[in-house]
Amino acid sequence: MLRISILLLSSLLFFACKNTPGATSQSSDVSVVSEDVPQDFLGFYMQFHSDTIFQKEHIIFPLSQQADGSPWLREGWTIHKAFTNQDGFKQVFTSVKGLVFETIKDDKGLYTIERRFSKSADSYNLIYYKITNGFGEGWEAK
Q: First-to-last CA distance in the chain?
């Protein structure tokens, strides 16, 4: 029962996360907070979460290892949706030399999602993805 509750909460994390007010994104549902995030990233980020084919084409598989030691693969990939302005989560972006770091945490500090995007040529790619929670070191949703 606890495992089902954890999986349900993790699923909700993907579909019902809050972004911090005062954002700079061009959608009313998604906000990107950071002055140093490149403007071209915002367009990429919106398309990444609205176009499933585009998303899979902009992920460098295999991604960093899951908690069980296996990598994230194209075949088992769960499409990521954009985080919305609902209560309970904070989303922060940092940009350094063509890399954009995204961190999403719930207000209680139980869940953290880390994603990293790298710019190559004229677009970005997801190059790192990790979920951790307060229930155990290295636990990740599947």
A: 16
- pLDDT for 93 equals 92
Distance in angstroms (rounded) separating the CA atoms of residues 47 and 56: 11
Q: What is the pTM of this model?
A: 0.71
17 pLDDT band (50/70/90 cuts)? very low
Instruction: Give the pairing of strands 89-96 and 99-106.
Output: antiparallel
Structure tokens at 25: 């994104």
Reported CATH class of domain 2-133:
alpha beta
> What secondary structure, in 3-state letters, does the chain show?
CHHHHHHHHHHHHHHCCCCCCCCCCCCCCCCCCCCCCCHHHHHHHHHHHHCHHHHHHCECCCEEECCCCCEECCCCCCCCCCCCCCCCEEEEEEEECCEEEEEEEECCCCEEEEEEEEEECCEEEEEEEEEEECCECCCCCC
In this structure, are strands 123-133 and 89-96 parallel, antiparallel, or unpaired? unpaired
- CA distance linking residue 135 with residue 118, whole number of Å: 30
